Amino acid sequence: MIDKTDLKNRKGENLLRRIDPATTIVPLIVILVLCTFFLVNPEGSTNLLSSVRTFLGDKFGVYYLMLGLGILLVSLWIAFSDIGKITLGKPGEKPQYGFWSWGAMVFTCGLAADILFYSLCEWISYAQEAHTAELGSVQDWASAYPLFHWGPIPWSFYATLAACFGFMVHVRDVRKQKYSEACRPILGDWTDRFPGRLIDVLAVAALIAGTATTFSVATPLLSAALSSLVGVESSKLITISLLVVICIVYTVSVMGGMKKVSWLANACMWLFGILLLFVLALGGETRYIIETGFTAVGNVVQNFIGLSTWTDAGRTTSFPQNWTIFYWAYWLVWCVASPFFMGGISRGRTVKQVILGAYAFGVSSTFISFIVLGNYGLGLQMTGRFDGIVFYESCGDLYQTVIEIIKTLPAHWIALVLLVAAMIAFYATSFDSITLVASAYSYREFQDGEEAGGRMKLFWAILLILLPIALIFSEGSMSNLQTVSIIAAFPIGMVIVLIIASFIKEAKAYLEKS
Predict the structure, then answer these.
(1) What tens digit of pLDDT does each residue of 417-430 get?
(2) pTM attached to this predicted model
(3) Which fold has domain 14-128+139-228+238-513?
(4) Calpha distance 337→56 (Å, rounded)
């Protein structure tokens, strides 16, 4: 841990001297240039980025699939090997946070409100896929695929990297909390040269792009839910107002330090749990939800290897290119921020506890969300209470379809209130973690036990919300920026492999010295 006197002296240093322009100014300029390009030439930029994205998914799709399955297997090997016994901190040191508070922050730091949106509607998309009919029935596979795409493989990215970054920060006691620094055991002096700088610029650019597009995914649902509650038509003004409210909430929280971040994460879990219990207990589909969920878990377990390795080489449906590869890529981009935060809050836990704990909280909570919210809508479809597929086909608005599904609940306004509150809390907790990580990333040196300055936190808190607000005025731009983040996942995946290999090398050397 950093000495308190040293910490006080460092706070008094000129902020500009401590800022790393490569990870602060350069990514900002790159993103602003991209956004300008999207706005000035939306059609041309869309065609170009779509071509690149299609090329990567079609020609290199197996790369993403191998990466996903490989990281999952490596994470389990690390957890149950001698490396898994390493304490992130001093040997015998107690965990910094209680198990529940730690788990709440782990779960909420990386999913934002996307989990609520996709839990409520993803089954509709799978029900319309030709591949679902090839496998069997909508009943069996529209409920199973969400669990696969949000299950162990994507969470293995977070879990493994959390252990890597936790080791780097709490055991190696590095001064630079950056992606490149995690590669130092293999890169050596190249970490401080062009390869290392390139890794850091790429990481921050991907972080900003992924962050901006995350808001574009679920914010329209939040706007639609609030509009339905107050009886007004959804508009861009309402969406922007909600973004400002979210910004205020997470800015106040992050400026208050980790104590408020932890409190907000716990509050988010309570709101999330109450919403799930409301739907499960009062929706009239309790038996169906539980039984379908149980079957879906069984289908995923039984067919896991096949689902993880299917490439559709004949391109009969291009399902893995449109879904599995897309999801693995999107989760890889989010790996720039969330695992750093997870590793930072894991001081005092063993590597094994971090990896298995991330699975325990992340996978189980995600499964419960999709089983309860997703199977409620699927249950309405299968029993004929509400045909979500036909409604969506007629209106073409997935967000309005979700609202209509919620309106089938008794006292549905309560569910809408819980949904709005939970989504705001999810966004706030996720962007708390991103703000903290981005702030630390902006310093040339940043030691364990030191927090970023208030001005740096405020800079990132505002920056993270400005891009989504600007992009609201151009739906094509939001799609383009999301595509940029997916494309960025291609090199990010290579860096992640390098980080994990560096961690294993350094951890083995640490064990030999112990």
Answers:
(1) 999 999 988 888 88
(2) 0.89
(3) Amino acid/polyamine transporter I (1.20.1740)
(4) 23
